[in-house]
Design brief:
Layout (H helix, E strand, L loop, with lengths): L1 H28 L3 H13 L2 E2 H8 L3 H13 L3 E5 L7 E5 L1 H22 L4 H15 L2
Antiparallel strand pairs: 1-3, 2-3
Helix pairs in contact: 1-5, 3-4
Length: 137
Amino acid sequence: MKNKQNIDDMLIAFRQNMTNSLFKEAKGSGLSLSHFEILIYIMHRGEVTMKDIAEWLHITPPSASSLVEVLVKKKLVTRTQSDKDRRTVHITLNKEAHKLIGSIHKKKMTVFKKMLSKLNKEDEADLIRILNKCITN
């Protein structure tokens, strides 16, 4: 059990390190991590609704709307009303959001590569083998 706790702690520390690098970027852009999470969510899903965002972040629709409003004002997303149901609002990324996400991704990968550069070839092969084992079922 102690070994599992160490793994949990290490994974949390690894994720925290990655999150800290994103947080630095977020502060520079005037966006929060929640804003970046929304942008990445939309990037992966394409077009989403306000309800989708609220459910995904486990927040209320008014809270999701407030977060999206910041992204609209920064011209990162577009809100459009559904033709079928006026109560439904669709959210899509704008070109600037794609550029921002690309920039953040490059910086995140730089941090990730720096962390992995501490591994020798054998450790790197072990990590890949272990991660593959964990993600394939």
